[in-house]
Amino acid sequence: MDKAQRYLTAGTRENTRKSYRAAIEHFEVSWGGYLPTTAEGIVRYLAEYADTLALSTLRQRLAALAQWHVSQGFPDPTKTAQVRQMLKGIRVLHPIQQKQAAPLQLRHLEKAVDRLERKAGEAIELGDYRALMRSRRDVALLLIGFWRGFRSDELARLQVEDTQAEAGVGITFYLPYTKADRAHAGTTFHTPALKKLCPVEAYINWITVAGITRGPVFRKLDRWGNLSEKGFKASSLIPLLRRILEDADIPAQAYSSHSMRRGFATWASANGWDIKGLMSYVGWRDMKSALRYVEAINSFGSLAVTDSRIKKLEHDH
């Protein structure tokens, strides 16, 4: 790879490159299409997979095909009226209800942290240093993930040298890029110290017991308690989060990597944060993106039925 190509490649995220390569392979190998193609070819391709692939997946495939044509100097066949009409037809004939991660409720966060703190206390009494490390890491992961509203990949990319924490004051994180930061200008995130469930205290406790001074904040601990030098993968967050919650007797199957982010947004909205302030804090640029994470507030007041069955339905939903 020459010098120019190295910079051009760096301008596209690795995950995007992988997904685009997979999409092109699917079009050419799995379906048997030829590139460059036409709008008619795109329509036939969409028709073949309209009832088996999610619309979001089809759109991702179109984005990859569009990028291939533009980069090779060919007209983009995905932007025609015929293709737009096809996508509209797929939405009509294959409507789907958008699935969202269940928001992590504050009471569940508190219960999980209490359980981890008890385990930390037991580890100290037994002199079990490795068990103590695991508890401290998991507490920090939960509290930073919740109060900062980080995505799983952002938690995975946090670096100790880009984090400043002062007990009783606050903590500041710097990320060279985020999903909303398309220009890679870098973003700084600040969270104050809290009276309870404090992310600042949790972070300091974790890096102190782990002896970390550089590198990834969150790292894998193997079954024997050995701490990796490398950060954990973003895909590891869901099973880790569910394990932590299940250990605290909290049903965890509804929770995903977005549950902490959505849980914070729901808590903030219920506690009077306006949407503009919430967007600024979490880092959303698009109003629609923000509203997907915020639970609607029940504003029926005294007219609302308070029967326990209604409350159970709301909780289950």
Explain what the structure shows:
The chain is mainly α and 317 residues long. The chain folds into two domains: 3-93, Tyrosine recombinase, N-terminal domain (DNA polymerase, domain 1), CATH 1.10.150; 106-293, Intergrase catalytic core (hpI Integrase, Chain A, Orthogonal Bundle). The protein is 54% helix and 8% strand. The chain has helices at residues 3-10, 14-30, 39-49, 55-71, 81-93, 106-126, 129-148, 152-157, 199-210, 237-247, 259-270, 275-282, 287-293, 308-316, and strands at residues 163-166, 170-175, 187-192, 219-221, 227-231. The strands form two sheets. The chain has a three-stranded antiparallel beta sheet, with helices on one face. A hairpin with a 3-residue loop joins strand 1 (163-166) and strand 2. Helix 2 crosses helix 4, helix 6 (106-126) runs antiparallel to helix 7 (129-148) and helix 7 (129-148) packs antiparallel against helix 9 (199-210). The chain is elongated and about 70 Å long. The chain starts with a helix and ends with a helix. Mean pLDDT is 86; it is low at 307-317.
Properties at a glance:
14 helices; two-stranded antiparallel sheet; three-stranded antiparallel β-sheet; mainly alpha; disordered C terminus; hpI Integrase, Chain A; DNA polymerase, domain 1
